[in-house]
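Field reference: sequence -> structure
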Amino acid sequence: MKLAIKVIVILFLVYAAIVASFETWLGFTQPQGGTTIVITTTGADGIKKERVVSRLDSDGKLYVAANHWPRRWYREVLANANVQVTSNGQTLSYVAVPITGAEFDHVNAEHQLGPVIRILTGFPPRRLVRLDPVPATPPTS
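Structure field:
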């Protein structure tokens, strides 16, 4: 019995180390590609921070997901919904709106995560945010 407990604890620690290593690698490399955008949030300290996130398009709307345990950007969005998004060299302003219910279910079903990414990230709860564009203000004359 003691051996079984030791084996389970060791396996858990190895798995936790794999998840921590993967999340750390992602945090440092922030891989970018055709399906990523850079979201700029403002922390409570007023400092702007950039983070690469995957863009999710659904029904003509733009969404991003917090798919990992490290999710400072998501907490910052909850505290200050005004964000900037840089995509294809263009930066625009958005208001981030956390979604739940039927809208969450719809977008989540369209953009499901595969089992490998779920395993590598340690099965964090997924949170989704819709990014509503802020209309450009015309210049004053």
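Note: The beta strands are 36-42, 48-58, 61-66, 82-87, 90-99, 127-133.
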